[in-house]
Specification:
By secondary structure, this protein is of the alpha+beta class. The protein is built from 4 helices and 7 strands, in the order H-H-E-E-E-E-E-H-E-H-E. The strands form 2 sheets. A 4-stranded antiparallel sheet has the order 3-4-5-7. The protein is rod-shaped and about 90 Å long.
Length: 156
């Protein structure tokens, strides 16, 4: 007997929720048409280009053959090491980037300039140049990346 009462109660609750769904939802659509709430057919999807000009990924181009695109949502941080901090005479600046599944190492001259854009995740692309051209661009204060290494985390 208790089982029948329980089943009756559950059935009544489900019937009420079903009735409520079909009788209350049209009032939301009417409110949207009057301007109080947005109606579902008046909401248009907003494209990413319309909201911002920020890149969705960082493109690293090591040569004409190797390129990687690493998504900014997977970016964890960057570490900068200046060439002065190393004992090597031919030492280059180094930036280590950590993403969710990848680690990238950039080496070059004047790489400290890139840290601000990395911090704001507003850097669309980094291209490596030949080492013989690093002196030309590196002496002007512009960053010059001479090597890019990307490896998947968990692999040597």
């Amino acid at each position: 007997m208790i089982a029948y009462i329980f089943l009756f109660f559950v059935g009544a609750v489900l019937a009420f929720l079903s009735w409520r769904r079909w009788h209350i939802m049209p009032s939301f659509a009417a409110a949207g048409a009057s301007g109080n709430l947005p109606a579902s057919d008046t909401i248009a999807p907003v494209s990413a280009a319309a909201t911002d000009n920020e890149p969705r990924c960082l493109r690293l181009v090591a040569s004409g053959v190797r390129a990687w695109e690493l998504a900014w949502p997977g970016f964890y941080g960057a570490t900068f090491t200046a060439a002065d901090a190393r004992a090597d005479a031919d030492a280059l600046d180094c930036i280590e980037l950590c993403f969710a599944r990848f680690e990238a190492v950039l080496r070059g001259k004047n790489l400290a300039v890139l840290m601000g854009k990395l911090h704001s995740m507003n850097l669309p692309e980094v291209r490596a140049v030949d080492k013989k051209f690093a002196g030309v661009s590196g002496n002007s204060g512009e960053p010059a990346v001479v090597s890019i290494e990307v490896r998947k985390l968990g692999q040597s």
